Amino acid sequence: MFRPRYLSLSDGQWSQRVEKALQELRECRACPRDCRVDRLEDKWAACKTGRHAVVSSAFPHFGEEDVLRGRRGSGTIFFSHCNLRCVFCQNYDISQAIPPARAPKGLTPRKLAGLMLDLQDRGCHNINFVTPEHVAPQVVEGLAEAVPRGLKLPVVYNTSAYDALSSIELMDGLVDVYMPDFKFWREESSKRYMKAADYPSAARAAIKAMHEQVGPLRIGQDGLAQGGVLIRHLIMPGGLQETRRILEWIADELGPGSYVNVMAQYYPAGAVDPKRQPELTRRPDATEVLTAKSWARELGLRVDARN
């Protein structure tokens, strides 16, 4: 039977990890924005999140990759707000549009742990933290509360990859499956569409650190992911050049056996403005989709079964 990595930590190691997480919040450097505000005093900056993580929803998700959802669903915990400003965000209403004053109240570590345990009781195959980049320290606190109360499911860290290396270090030994998205290769695109020119370099560093911790994706006899890295890449209209560079980097740096989900689900959403971003007002066409997936296979990457 699969044993999550965090079950190997001693009480002393958990205490040290929580203390390290709290220090991360004192002058916040949980993500590359490096705002340096004291979130322990409930202050916030780019991510609009203070002392406690804000959760928009928690439920068994059947829309994730087959290796995560299985038959009983992936236990997703969606965090509100985000440290990126993707103009095309399909979760815009919970990542950017909601003002902090109207956001749900942040959850204490004990309440966050309660969500994990409820998802476990509902039969989910894993605990899937969605958009955790800005609340990695709070995730540590929540896990530290949940494990003594009986949590025993694998942990999935479902991220845009705009993570600080210090946050990925916090997750070492706690996360079984990393699921980063690699969005753009060019700084110009990242600045224009996400207001984060440093995204490509930050994502490459974070994904390499994830891979060093857990290696390539491993799938058990039951068809479920047991550990490793699963990379998502969303095909953007007119963005094949960047897609190619990203896929080549994955094959060169992480190995040709790396597991990728090359996704064709883009559609104009969020705050896409036909006047400001006319290139984003269409879906990727069939040729773009087929080309991107063909490249992934030619490079020797393991492409998600649904693709």
Largest sheet data = 9 strands, mixed
Measured by DSSP, the beta-strand proportion falls in 5-15%
Work out the helix count. Answer: 10
Note the run of SSEs as H and E: HEHEHHEHEHEHHEEHEHE
The protein's oligomeric status is: single chain
Helix content: 25-40%
Give a written overview of the molecule:
The chain has 307 residues and is an alpha/beta fold. The protein is built from ten helices and nine strands. Strands 1, 2, 3, 4, 5, 6, 7, 8 and 9 form a nine-stranded mixed sheet that branches. Helix 9 packs parallel to helix 10. The longest helix is centred in the first third of the chain and has 16 residues. The two termini are 29 Å apart. The mean pLDDT is 95.
Primary descriptors:
307 residues; nine-stranded mixed sheet; 10 helices; 35% helix; globular
